[in-house]
Amino acid sequence: RGPCPLVLMMKDPYANYVVQKVIDRAEGDQHKRVVHLVRDNAPALKKLTYGKHILARLDKAEKNS
Length: 65
Fold this sequence. Notes:
Layout: H1 5-10, H2 16-25, H3 28-40, H4 42-45, H5 49-64
Helix pairs in contact: 2-5
């Protein structure tokens, strides 16, 4: 079994925008799963320009909730 499609999207220069929107729009258990996946991949995301955008979006979403 390969890597999770959402993880692959986080690392893509264009698809990461979709992940950012999922962070904004997901609710309940779905949101918790996305947050967990992002946090688990945070070390790798910090090394990518667009990964940093995802982490910033997550931080903003958590501050607003």
